[in-house]
Amino acid sequence: MRKIIGLLCLASLFAACGDDSSSAPAPVEPSSSEEVVESSSSMPVPSSSSIRSSSAISSSVESSSSEPYVEKHLAWNYLNPALSYGEVTDERDGRVYKYVEFEGYIRFMAENLNYSDSITNPNLLESSWCPYNNLDSCSKYGRLYTWAAAMNLEPKYNYEEFTGKKGIPKHIEYQGLCPDGWFMYADKWVWSEAVWQHQPVEYCAQEGWRYEGCTNELGFTALPGGYYEDGVFKEVGENFYYWSVQDGGGVDYETGGRGSLYSKSGDYGISFGRNVNFTVKKTVGAAVRCYQTIPQDPCADPDNPYCSSSSTAESSSTAIEDSSSSETADESSSSESVEDSSSSETAEEN
């Protein structure tokens, strides 16, 4: 009897299972989007800070290719072909830059800095960007740096005061992130004689701007790389922004000095203008343009009155020394003659 009851229970249980399977929907194959989600879930999830950080995005985009990027020197396509440019190699990464000389006493790079080794230089970590996160844009416009990165300082100086290194005022040939022997733009007086005395159209590239009108007569070849702020690249193709070593000082330590060359269209047509020095948040990304002073020989110009006076004085001093030496030699010779004569007379007497 117990066996019969047990068999009846098993039969009823199988019947119930059969009813459930017949009413359940058939299995659905995961869609391609679901497969992507599932596969991505097995990967490490980036932190919220890396998601917010444009520099992290930039790094991932720039390094996404398995093949190393080959530098194209796209900025060189905008140089003035009528001028002669020199070349300098940044020993840190082997990158070659073009430069132009102004009136024999100052050199300017004819392109913006494009140094990005954050392993060797941790000050650059998450502190520089290629416009639109594209390496070709860096080749054309150079990189955009925070103020602290441009100054080659720790990121904390985007929010704190910095007065200079080793007791040297920061406005006197401050190297910052520039290669050895080159310096960051300091203030309007550094470039006033070479650049700012000219019209803006004379130092912007003939092509590459939103509007036409640039002549690039000076060969400075400014290109409108825009700037970076709060995760957005702004005014690319319209304006050229670069950092100065100045900051807000006692007014606001979180702002840094910046200059610009801009183009605009107004009631009177297309025009180009400049802002020599104004302040913005140091966390904004802007370009770095380096310059170098050329050692001067004061006597290179024969018409230099100071050099002539100096030379005359030196030659006079030399002549006096020669004359004195000659007189001493004559006196010595005369003394020797007197002694010889005296010796001769003594011998004759004996």
Question: TL;DR of this structure?
Answer:
The protein is α+β, with helices and mostly antiparallel strands and 350 residues long. The chain contains 8 helices and 14 strands. The strands form 5 sheets. It has a 5-stranded antiparallel sheet with strand order 1-2-3-14-8, with no helix packed on it. The protein has a 3-stranded antiparallel sheet with strand order 11-12-13, with no helix packed on it. It has a two-stranded antiparallel sheet with strand order 4-5.
User: Order of strands across the biggest sheet?
Assistant: 1-2-3-14-8
Shape: globular
- Distance, first to last CA: 176 Å
**Low-confidence runs of at least 5 consecutive residues:** 1-65, 309-320, 341-350
Mean pLDDT: 72
H/E series: HHHHEEEEHEHEEEHEEEEEEH
Profile the largest sheet.
Answer: 5 strands, antiparallel
Secondary-structure class: alpha+beta
Discrete helix count: 8
Gyration radius, rounded:
38 Å
Helix content: 25-40%
As a percent range, the share of strand residues is: 15-25%
What does this structure look like?
This protein has 350 residues and is an alpha+beta fold. It has a domain at 54-293. It contains 8 helices and 14 strands. A 5-stranded antiparallel beta sheet has the order 1-2-3-14-8, with no helix packed on it. Strand 12 and strand 13 form a beta hairpin. It is globular and about 55 Å long. It starts with a helix and ends with a helix. 29% of the residues are buried.
Question: What key phrases describe this protein's structure?
Answer:
single chain; 350 residues; alpha+beta; 5-stranded antiparallel sheet; 3-stranded antiparallel sheet; disordered N terminus; disordered C terminus
